Every structure is written in C-alpha cells, then in structure tokens.
C-alpha cells in the first residue's frame, strides 16, 4: 500500500499526454488463515477490460485457487499493488492495517460483515471508503447474478454432505451384493435455503434417502422437487428477504420437542439454519444426539454463528455418544477453484453496474447499489 503502488497501479494509464486514465480494479492476496479463494479470476478480466477497466493483481493472489500470476497476465491483467487502485475487490473483510492503507473515496467490494463486525464498517466509514458488502446485495431477480451468499452457499452445501459421507460408518446408497442388501442411509437437512437444497441434492446423488425441514413451509415444494421428503412440524416462520423470522418461545419449544423425536431416526443430519447477524438457532439438542444410532454424523454448517447443534465445537470434529459432530468453518475455501470462479462472477456483475467506458460512476438511485453500499459519506441511509 505504499508509493510503489501508485506507480504500479496507475502506470500505463495513457500516452503521457492528457488521455484520461481508465478505472483500476485491484485484487489483493487474501491473508485470512485457511482462505484459498481470490476475489477475481482470469476468466473475468476480459469482461472488465471491455468496460474500460484495468485489473491489477497482487503477486500470488490466485495461488490458493491454483491460478498462477501468468494466467492473469495472459488474460490482460497486470501484477502490481492492488491497494492503490480505484476499486479494491476482496473476499474477506479487511484488517485494521489494510483499512489504514485505504484512502478517501476509494471503493472496496467484498464480504464486509456489516451485521457481525460493525467495527470494521465504522473504520471504513471513518476512512472515507465507499464500501459495498456482497452480503447486503438485495435478493431480487435482477441481482441474482451478484448474489455471492447464494453462490458460496452452494459450494458449502455440497462439501457438507461429502464431509458427512467421509465420516459416516455406513454407506449412503443401497447396495445389493452377494452378501446381502445394505439399506440406504437416511439423511435429514435442517434449513433448506440454498445450502440446504444443495445438500439435499448431493445426498440424493450419493444414494441416500433424503428429508428436508425448514420453518418456512413455502419451500416444501422445492424439497420435494429434489426427490426428498418434507418433514412437517406444523410451524410457519416465514420472514422477509427469504429468511426465517425468529420463533416465539412456544414455537421454539414445540420445534425442539418434535425435532428430538425425528432426528433419532436419521443416520446423517446436516444443519444449515443461519440468518446473517443473528446467533444460529439451536435445532439439535444433546438429547437428540444421544438418541441417534452409534456411527451417525451431524454436520453443523452454522458453527461460525454458534452452531445449530448443542454439542458443536466450531471448527472442530468431536465424537459425543458415539456420534460424530463436524463443524467446518469456511467450507467454500475448501473448493477454491470453483468457489473463486463463482464469486468472481458475482463481483464482476456488481462492477458492471458501476463502470462504464472506463469511468467509475455508481448510480445510488439503483436499488442494488444503494442497498449493497454500507459506507458512504453524507448518506445516513447507507450508514444504518
């Protein structure tokens, strides 16, 4: 983020005369432990170039996703200091040190955790940075191509089931052999948003008999469309923006009682219930785990928010009552190639709303940009 960036990012901006320089988009190397994704991949460089943008990539930024610097330069990007660019695209929220290197009116795009890390957003606001949070993009039809929460949830749902299959002591599919028939595993997915639907689809492909549950009964048809059964507990907690509302105490008690009965009949339970900015609801009690057959598996995808299982230890794999409880963190980073590609498409779609003919000109009357922007000077609405 030093002076060399000014030369690296903003060099070759014209012919030395009065030619206006094109907007620059920087791609830093992610420094979060275990993070292998990168915000932009070589495949999208051409799209941004068509908009008149120049892409500057930090050396080694794509290594975790098996994307060498040469792949970026061949696509038309430059290797340099991304932090001096007009726009910086990241995956994870910036550290205080990184924020300290940003300048006023610079644009930052990424998962900025506006609900779970308000101190980060405040630091960006204090620095005068215009921040666009990928998790704040409205879930409307026009913004589907920018929905990074959904694209990464697809990856996570897929990997969660593979984690369950790896640790299960039983086959997922039914097997008919000379030694006899092995019944298919019974898999239950709690919470059937994007991650849950992908988990159901993946478990089905592996041959398990699948069942889905959610407090939003309107998703029952989506569950059945995947060949899964619907677990109906008689609770309707549909909320705004595709998320569930918080249950009342009575609903929560009724759900807990019914789930404890149901969970004991499954070999695999995958939990995905999570609402941004809230503690994860407890769906799998210690009593339910104790009632499961030895060798069963619980994969808790909500570990970063406390977990859906009472016995979850976020980031760890533990065995309780002969049941394996897995709580992986940042599952998308375990599939960095495709996770990065999907995320890069999301970021590029957002950038295409802001960049035209080499100029950065976000129109904040656009619903998508207005809601995604979480820090902007003289805009009280963006600061709420």
Tell me about this structure.
- There is one protein chain.
- This protein has 384 residues and is α/β, with parallel strands linked by helices.
- It folds into two domains: 172 residues, Rossmann fold (3-Layer(aba) Sandwich); 185 residues, NAD(P)-binding Rossmann-like Domain (Rossmann fold), CATH 3.40.50.720.
- It has a seven-stranded mixed sheet with strand order 3-2-1-4-5-6-18, with helices on both faces. The protein has a seven-stranded mixed sheet with strand order 11-10-9-12-13-15-14. It has a two-stranded antiparallel ribbon with strand order 7-8.
- The longest helix has 20 residues.
- It starts with a helix and ends with a helix.
- This is proton-translocating NAD(P)(+) transhydrogenase.
- The transhydrogenation between NADH and NADP is coupled to respiration and ATP hydrolysis and functions as a proton pump across the membrane.
- It comes from Pseudonocardia nematodicida.
- Keywords: NAD, NADP, Nucleotide-binding, Translocase.
